Amino acid sequence: MRAHLGDQLVIESTTTGATRRDGEIVGLHHEDGTPPYDVRWSDTDEVTLVFPGPDARIRPVEHHRRAAPASDLGEAGAVPAAAPPTGTSNPGDIGRRVAVARARRGLSREETAHRARMSLGYLAYLEEQPADPSVATLIRLADVLGTTAAVLRGGGTDLPPGQGQALLRPRLRDMGPEECRHLLSSYGVGRIAVSASDGRPAVVPVNYEVVDEAIVFRTAPGHVPAAAVGTEVAFEVDHVDEAMSQGWSVLAVGLAEAVTDPDAVRTLALRAHSTPWPGGDREMWVSIRPESLTGRRIVPADQ
After folding, report:
1. Residue whose C-alpha is closest to residue 217's, from 269, 292, 290, 280
2. Which of 34, 250, 265, 268 is the most exposed place for a label (fewest CB within 10 A)?
3. Please, what is the end-to-end C-alpha distance for the chain in angstroms?
4. Residue-wise over 145-168: b if at least 16 C-beta within 10 A, else e?
C-alpha cells in the first residue's frame, strides 16, 4: 500500500464492502508512501496514527501538476523545472490567503518555503499568480501557517463574511461619487432597506441593474421590495475581501418608483444581465434614481 498526502484512507466492511470510515491522509512517515499514516477522520476531525489493515484501501485524489510549478515536489531550495511566469502580479484567492497567513505569522517567503519543503520560486509563483496547487502542497503550507488546507482553499464560504482578523492598522476612507459609481458597476446583487407592509423595517437582497444612472430591479406586487415604491429608500452594495481583511460599501439614497411604460419595461428586460436568482414571477420593475451616493473603504493605514 502506497499513498500521497491528501489521499483518502477508506475502511470498508469485510462482508459488504460498504465504507465504514474514511479520512484524509495528512501525514506520511515514509518517503515511499508506505504505512503508517496520520489520518484526519471525516466523522470526528481528529488526527490519529493509522496502520491500515486488510479492510483498508487508498482512494487517490488527482494531483494537479503544471510545467511552471512542478518544483512544488522538490525539497527546500530546489531549482524550479521551469521559471515561474513573470509580469504583473495577479494573485488568485489561494495565493492571497497564503500570503496573508504568512504575514500574520511573521514568516518570510524563504522561511515558509523551507519549512514547507518547496522551492522559493514556486511559493513566489503561488502568491503572485493564479495557481492550482496540489492537495499535498496545501497541506504542507497549512501546517506551516497554522491553518488548514480547507481554509486556504476558501472553506467556510457558507459562513457570514468578515470572520477573519482586522488589519493591524486599518483606515476608513470616504469615497467620492465617481468611485462609488464605478463600484456599483452595471449590475450585481445589492440590498434595499424598506418599511414592509406590516410597518416593520426590512433589508432584502435583490439582483439589480444600473441603467442611465438609475438603479433598477425586478420584484412582484406584494413582495417586500415592492414596498419601496413611492418612498425614499436606501440601497446598499458592498464587498468583503476575506483574504486581505479589506472591503468597501456604497450607499445610494433616493425615491423609488415603479416603471410602468411598456417600452421601458421591455428595454429593461432585454438589457438585464440575469433573471432574479430566487426565480418565480417577478416582472415588476422598480427604479431608484440616487439623490445621494456615498461610500467608504477599509484600507491599510499607509494607503
Report:
1. 269
2. 34
3. 54
4. bebbbebbbeeeeeeeeeebeeee
Euclidean distance between CA atoms 183 and 177, whole angstroms? 10
Burial of 24 from C-beta contacts in 10 A (0-12 / 13-18 / 19+): buried
pLDDT in tens, the chain (303 residues): 999 887 889 998 777 777 778 888 878 898 889 999 988 887 776 788 999 998 999 988 644 333 334 444 443 433 333 334 444 445 678 888 899 889 888 999 999 999 998 888 889 888 988 877 877 788 889 889 988 887 788 766 667 777 777 888 899 999 999 999 999 999 999 999 999 878 899 999 999 999 999 999 999 999 999 999 999 999 999 998 876 788 999 999 999 999 999 999 999 999 999 999 999 999 999 999 999 999 999 998 887
